[in-house]
Amino acid sequence: MVKKMPKPSILVVYYAKLTEIFWISDSHLYHAYAWLKLFNLQKSYNKNLSQKDLQLIASSVLLAALSVSPYDKKYGAFETENEKERNMRLSNLVNFSLDNKRENREMPSRPYLLSELASKGVLSCASQEVRDLYNLLEHEFLPLDLASKVQPLLLKISKIGGKLSSASSVPEVKLSQYISALEKLTTLRVLQQASCIFKSIKIDMLSRMIPFFDFSVVEKISVDAAKQNFVAIKVDHLSGVVQFGTVDIESDGLSDHLSVLADSLNKARIHICPPVKKPSKLGESLISLAAIVENEHKRLLARKSIIEKRKEELERQILEKEKEEEKKRMSSQKKTVDEERVRLLNEQRQREQDRIRREIEEKNKAEAKKMLEDLNKAGKKHVVVEGELTKEAIMELARNEQLKERHEMEKKLQKFAKTMDYLERAKRQEEAPLIEQAFQKRLEEEKILHEQEQLREIELSKQHHASDLQEKNRLSRMLEHKNALQERIIQERAAEFGRLKKERDERMNRLISSRKHERETVRKLMFYLATSRVSSSACSCCGGGCSCSCS
C-alpha cells in the first residue's frame, strides 16, 4: 500500500515543531537539520516569502549548524548500539522518509550538514554578519584575534530576529539563542588553533584570548574537548600554564593503558620471534577480490539509483494522480456551476419574456379602449364592437370609418369644385366689359399726362434760352477788351516768329557757307595730293635728269 506524501503546509508545521523540540532536548545537530528542511520547504513552496524572511531563515539554519559541537561523542559497545538506534530514529524523524530501510542512507553529521548548506545555497541567502562569522570559525586561522573578531559579530547577531511576516507556521526566529553555543564553539576553535602553534601558554594570556567566559568555564570546555579527543590539553595550576600535546598520545595511549601495553608486547614478540609465513592463497584472491568489490559497489550504486528513481517515479505518479483528480473535481464543479448559471439565466429570460408579453397585452387593451373612445367622440353615432375588445378589431373599425369619411369628403370636394367653376366663369363674363372700359379710361389719362409733360419741357427750354441770352448780353461788354488783347498777343507772337525765323535763316546761311568752304578746302587738298603723286612718279622714271617743273 502506497503512503500518501503530506502536503508542504503540514510539513512546515511539522519541522517548525521539531526545531523547538530538538533545541530544548539539546540535539543541536538534528535541530540544524530540521531548520534546513524548513528552509527548503519555505524556499520551494512559499510564494509569498520575502527576501528579508528568507535571509532570516537562512541565517537561522547556518547558526544552528555552527552551534553543533565540532567533535563526535564516543560511547562504549552497548551504549554505541543504543546511540545508533536513537540516532536512526531521530534521523527518520528529520528525513521524514517513506522508505524505512536503513541501507543506502547516510547518517547526519556536522561536516555533511555544512556541505549541504554550501551546495543548496544557504550561505548565499544568509546575512553578511552570519557569513562573516562562518568564515572566521570554519576557514580562518587566527588563534590570537579570533575571539576579538567574533565578539562584535555576535553582538550584532543577537539583535537580529523577529516574527516572519510571510511564514505564519514558522515560530518567531531568535538568533540570540545561538550566542552561547557560538561562544563555546569560538572557545574550542581558539584552543584547537592555539594547540597547533603553542606547546604551552599562560593562563592569563589564554583568558585574554577568550573574553567570553571565566577560566573555570574555559577549563570545563577544554576537559570535554580532551575527553572527545578534539584537542590534547593539560592545565597546570601550579605553574599557571596550559600545556598542549598531540591527540594520538593523549587519547588512546593514556585512556587505556592495558591496550597500549598489549600492543607493545605484541610488537616486541613479533620482533623477537617473527611468525613463520605460511603459504596462503590470499595473494591470488586479492586481484579477483578487488574486481568483486568494485562490481558489488557498482551494483549497490545501481540499486540505489533504481530505488531513488522508483521513489521519484512513485512520487511523480502520486502528484499526477492528485493533479488529475483535482482537475476532474474542478472541471465537474465548473460544469455544475455553468449549468446552474445557464438554468438561472433561462429562467430569468423566460420570466422577462412573460412580463414583456403581459405588458404588451395590457398596453394593447389600453390603446384599444382609447381608440374606441376617440371613435365614439369623433363619430355621430355610438360605435359598438361585437365580441372581444381587441386592438385589431378597433383598428379595423376605425379603418372602415375613415374610408367612409374619405368617400363622403371626395363627393363634397367634387361638388364644391363644380360650383367654383361656375362662379369663376360667371365672374369672367361679367368683368370683361369693365376691364375694357378701365383700359380706355387709362389710355385717356396717360394721353393727357403726356401732353402736360410736353408743355412743361417747352416752358423749361424757353426759360433756359432766356437766361443764356441774358448771360450773353452781360459778357458782351468785355468784347472790345478781348479783341484788343487778342490782337496784341497775335502781333507779339508774329514778331517773335519773325525774329526766330530770321535767326534761323542766318544760322542756316552760316552753316551752308562753312560747309561750302570745307568742301572747297578738301577738294583743293585732294587735287594737290593727286598732283604731287603724279609728279613724283614722273621724276622716278627719268632718274632726275630732266628739267621738269618738279625740279
From TrEMBL:
Coiled-coil ranges per UniProt: 297-426
A molecular function (GO) term: translation initiation factor activity
Keywords: Coiled coil, Cytoplasm, Initiation factor, Protein biosynthesis, RNA-binding
SMART domains attached to this UniProt entry: PINT (SM00088)
Cellular component, GO annotation: eukaryotic translation initiation factor 3 complex
Protein name in UniProt: Eukaryotic initiation factor3
Species of provenance: Zea mays
